[in-house]
């Protein structure tokens, strides 16, 4: 049913009121030379600036007329239609002395680009040739010496060729080296309109081998790219791997058989990659990792359609995580507008919005909290920043080491009053190269022992990264520490892991998780070599987590971070009610100044002195003397 143009105009002319775009980070000018229904494609740089947080894709996009009025639009995402397979008609199989010949016809007059054979045979690999005809008389070869197979979970029973209106097909299958198998039918793929795609640059940023899996970090160049197909380039002659990318799973393989080869190296993603870097996981099983030379990809264009009621320079604004998803009446007309005739427009380069203010992205909250006496706190650092707004500060290892494990003693202070804050743990980690020394033990020559020196006591390490050049080994490594406490000299077990490597496997770093944070600045790594040569280490790195604080300030007046109070209780702020708004706001970067000691540090030293080992020793001597005096005062016991 055709939509009346007047009805379209009424729906599309529904506009929102003018808005303040100080919270949007980027904009683009769209030059309209002819009023009416207009279609333009969103460029990758514009999509990269989008900061949508759940809900509809690109919901922070706004279309603004030359008079400053927000105009409704629809995003025309491609319809991903699954291909339709129809059973071939007049199927006939003929068994000859050296070949099996399959003949069948297309049940439709549509354009055809693929046929799929059907068989119940479970394990086979054969060479085949495909010929096609439009009239049943004049035949044309479409595929020669192609491999068809089904084995070990790999299946290749299709022929792909240039689309055309083919009506008759003939497949000749070579049976000279293997027993003939029975084919039960064939299917014709009805050719659908191809989804338009564009090249999407892909760079392999990192590669890690983790427990028989290869993890590739792929940089797509921009966020919010609507990926199409991803193709792997590898020189490996024969392989089969299960892969996962953006929750899409595929089986990639390459076979060679008697001079012929077959392969499938494409991942049909057809999903929105909301982040710039995505992870491709290749499961190797017991096989060595694949060599990957490069990766190619395509993306689908993302057009928008809107009613331009006037010529001139229109503006597209994007980049506001706080923006609510717009609710336009024209959303109900998406299917009708998708293929509607529309004018095209020219666009300028993507630009930063000069009116953007970071404070505009922050929620309105009370700037200060309750008063606080910091006499019980031991340390503070100045928080240094140059703008007002939502400030983000990353805690350094010193702060993490001197704070409680649950961070309950952290406080942000200004003029004696607390500033409410939110703790975020993005799941990131930092690595620090640490010195280590092998400590031979003549009493236990089969053991390898290393002393690892951490930067300072209580360093917030959660794991160790170990590197070894040894090509073949299997060891159990243990980490322990010696430290003094109020209970005396103690040894603590910090963690243990099994580490093994086979020839040909990657020499990537081994991650040894620590159960608890070390207290001592020196920890010991130990492994038993048995009757093997000693395990060699080339480097050791300590890993600690990234922890950040978010708080809002109206100006750049001094602010301090206080920490180091074991008796502090966890702070409870109403700020948790707007946690999502704080996490998605545009942040003001900050750094920490030098550490300053507070009065609580001296009090802690006195408290530790009261519980020092010398005090316990003196107390034991006093108790011993009292017992000796009491024994002397006791009357002698009569002889038995």
Instruction: Please give the largest β-sheet.
Output: 6 strands, antiparallel
Structural class: mainly beta
Instruction: Give the termini distance in whole angstroms.
Output: 121 Å
**Are there runs of 5+ residues with pLDDT below 50, and where?**
1-18, 606-611
Q: Quickly count the domains.
A: 5
Tell me roughly what share of residues is in helical segments. Answer: under 10%
What is the global morphology?
A: flat
Average pLDDT, to the nearest integer?
86
Give me the count of strands.
48
How many alpha or pi helices? Answer: 7
Kindly provide the radius of gyration, computed on alpha-carbon positions and rounded to a whole number of angstroms.
Answer: 35 Å
Q: What fraction of the residues are assigned to beta strands by DSSP?
A: over 45%
What do these coordinates show?
The chain is mostly beta strands and 640 residues long. The chain folds into five domains: 5-75 and 302-356, no CATH class; 84-190, Jelly Rolls (Sandwich), CATH 2.60.120.260; 199-299, Sandwich (Jelly Rolls); 359-428 and 546-602, no CATH class; 429-545, Jelly Rolls, CATH 2.60.120.260. It has seven helices and 48 strands. Strands 1, 3, 4, 27, 29 and 30 form a six-stranded antiparallel β-sheet that branches. A six-stranded antiparallel β-sheet has the order 7-8-14-10-11-12, with no helix packed on it. Strand 33 and strand 34 form a beta hairpin. The model is unreliable at 1-18 and 606-611 (pLDDT under 50).
């Amino acid at each position: 049913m055709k939509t009346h143009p007047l009805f379209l105009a009424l729906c599309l002319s529904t506009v929102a009121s003018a808005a303040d775009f100080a919270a949007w980070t980027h904009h683009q000018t769209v030059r309209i030379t002819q009023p009416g229904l207009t279609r333009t494609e969103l460029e990758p740089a514009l999509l990269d600036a989008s900061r949508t947080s759940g809900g509809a894709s690109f919901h922070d996009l706004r279309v603004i007329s030359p008079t400053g009025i927000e105009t409704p639009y629809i995003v025309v995402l491609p319809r991903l239609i699954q291909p339709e397979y129809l059973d071939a008609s007049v199927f006939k199989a003929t068994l000859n002395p050296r070949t099996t010949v399959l003949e069948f016809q297309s049940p439709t007059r549509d354009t055809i680009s693929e046929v799929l054979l059907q068989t119940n045979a479970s394990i086979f690999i054969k060479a085949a040739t495909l010929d096609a005809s439009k009239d049943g008389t004049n035949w044309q070869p479409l595929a020669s010496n192609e491999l068809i197979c089904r084995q070990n979970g790999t299946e290749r029973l299709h022929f792909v060729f240039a689309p055309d209106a083919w009506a008759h097909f003939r497949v000749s299958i070579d049976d000279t080296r293997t027993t003939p198998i029975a084919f039960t039918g064939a299917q014709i793929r009805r050719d659908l309109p191809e989804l338009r795609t564009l090249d999407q640059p892909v760079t392999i940023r990192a590669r890690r081998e983790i427990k028989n899996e290869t993890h590739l970090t792929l940089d797509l160049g921009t966020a919010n790219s609507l990926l199409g197909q991803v193709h792997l380039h590898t020189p490996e002659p024969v392989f089969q791997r299960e892969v996962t990318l953006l929750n899409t799973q595929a089986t990639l393989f390459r076979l060679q058989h008697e001079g012929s080869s077959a392969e499938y190296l494409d991942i049909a993603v057809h999903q929105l990659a909301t982040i710039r870097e995505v992870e491709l996981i290749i499961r190797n099983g017991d096989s060595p990792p694949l060599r990957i030379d490069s990766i190619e990809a395509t993306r689908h264009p993302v057009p928008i359609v809107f009613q331009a009621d006037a010529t001139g320079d229109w503006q597209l604004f994007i980049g506001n995580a706080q923006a609510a998803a717009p609710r336009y009446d024209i959303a109900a007309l998406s299917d009708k507008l998708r293929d509607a005739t529309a004018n095209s427009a020219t666009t300028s380069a993507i630009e930063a919005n000069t009116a953007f203010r970071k404070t505009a992205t922050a929620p309105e909250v009370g700037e200060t909290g309750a008063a606080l006496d910091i006499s019980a706190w031991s340390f503070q650092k100045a928080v240094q920043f140059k703008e007002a707004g939502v400030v983000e500060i990353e805690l350094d290892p010193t702060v993490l080491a001197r704070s409680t494990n649950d961070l309950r003693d952290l406080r942000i202070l200004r003029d004696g009053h607390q500033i409410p804050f939110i703790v975020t743990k993005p799941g990131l980690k930092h690595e620090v190269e640490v010195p280590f020394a092998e400590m031979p033990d003549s009493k236990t020559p089969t053991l390898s022992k290393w002393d690892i020196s951490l930067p300072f006591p209580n360093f917030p390490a959660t794991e160790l990264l170990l590197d070894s050049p040894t090509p073949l080994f299997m060891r159990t490594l243990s980490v322990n520490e010696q430290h003094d406490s109020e209970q005396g000299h103690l040894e603590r077990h910090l963690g243990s892991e099994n580490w093994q490597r086979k020839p040909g496997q990657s020499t990537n770093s081994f991650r040894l998780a620590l159960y608890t944070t070390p207290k001592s600045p020196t920890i010991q790594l130990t492994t038993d070599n048995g009757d093997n040569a000693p395990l060699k280490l080339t480097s050791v790195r300590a890993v600690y987590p990234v922890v950040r604080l978010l708080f809002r300030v109206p100006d750049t007046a001094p602010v301090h971070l206080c920490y180091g109070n074991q008796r502090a209780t966890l702070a409870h702020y109403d700020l948790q009610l707007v946690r999502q708004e704080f996490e998605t706001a545009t942040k003001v970067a900050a750094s920490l100044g030098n550490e300053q000691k507070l009065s609580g540090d001296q009090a802690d030293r006195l408290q530790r002195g009261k519980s020092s080992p010398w005090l316990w020793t003196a107390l034991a001597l006093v108790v011993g003397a009292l017992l000796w005096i009491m024994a002397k005062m006791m009357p002698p016991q009569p002889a038995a």
